[in-house]
Specification:
- 52% of the residues lie in helices and 3% in strands.
- The protein has 16 helices and four strands.
- The chain has helices spanning 20-30, 44-61, 67-93, 101-112, 120-132, 146-152, 156-164, 166-172, 185-205, 207-220, 229-232, 260-265, 274-280, 282-285, 294-303, 331-337, and strands at 12-14, 245-246, 290-291, 313-315.
- The strands form two sheets. Strands 1-4 form a two-stranded parallel ribbon.
- Helix 2 (44-61) runs antiparallel to helix 3, helix 3 packs antiparallel against helix 4 and helix 3 (67-93) crosses helix 5 (120-132).
Amino acid sequence: MHTKSAKPASFAHSAAQEPHKNRTKEILKKHPEIRRYVGKNPLTFWFIAGVVALQIALAFLLREQSWWLILPAAYTVGAVANHALFVLIHECTHHLIFSRRVWNNLASILANLPIVVPGAISFHRYHLKHHAFQGIYELDADVPNEWEARLIGNSAPGKALWLLFYPIFQGLRPLRLKEIGFIDGWILLNWFVQFSFDIAIFMLFGAKAFCFLLFSLFFSIGLHPLGARWIQRHFVVEGDQETYSYYGAMNKLAFNVGHHNEHHDFPSVPWNHLPKVRAAAREYYDTLTWHKSWTKLLFQFLFDPKLSLFSRVVRGDRGQVALNAEVKPDLEAIEKMA
């Protein structure tokens, strides 16, 4: 059981291992047909190309427009587009587009371009550790820093500021993960390509075009209904449940990223098949608490004093998983779990 107070001043602690591995085994025993959803979806690359082209085109069209048009455009179309690119980078991270890792990495670097800040390859490194070591404070960058949680507290203004500047707070978390290397050749390539793109946009299109992309970044993962996705995934809102799915209409524009329990249970299943996983094993997923509105969750998080950055589960048991473990993106990994 987890220990959590009404207004937590620390994270909830669990003595159990993360919940997904055992549930995956159970589901596969009852629903072996789910194995057929494991695989690649090369068509996802064309979504990447299309959304990148859309953002570049919008930046060009807005290069000489009023700020009163640029800001609403960034909050609406730009935020949705950039959020979609984050999800598509996530698909690349799990190698769900191409068979070869190099092509998935290159696709993620392409998807990173309109996001302004280089992070696709770093996300790959830290996100796979999040799957392998969910809730391990020293290895899971998805868990907020303790100082971060204490700084923000339980107030609505504090939580609003945290969401507004979420990209900055997220970028600081890897500093605490001392066991994970920070730099390699792929990360340097990501930085070089990204900063070259940023300079080109600024020089060719101008400051307003660049700011449109920058605002789209902050809105896509910040103080915006889309920003509630970062709350939805693992913030404890009921009982001991650690992971939550979202089944609202925005999944259609977000490549089914709301199916988060399904994704953690079956990380080798691409985005287009995740609803089929839920449909096949409804007795597991429909009995869990899930969210149907990111907007409602956003306001709940802001104004419910019982919810804070401490509303997360942490654990010390690594489950005898090696530090270099990744969630293998292939059928063999699932077969071994069965």
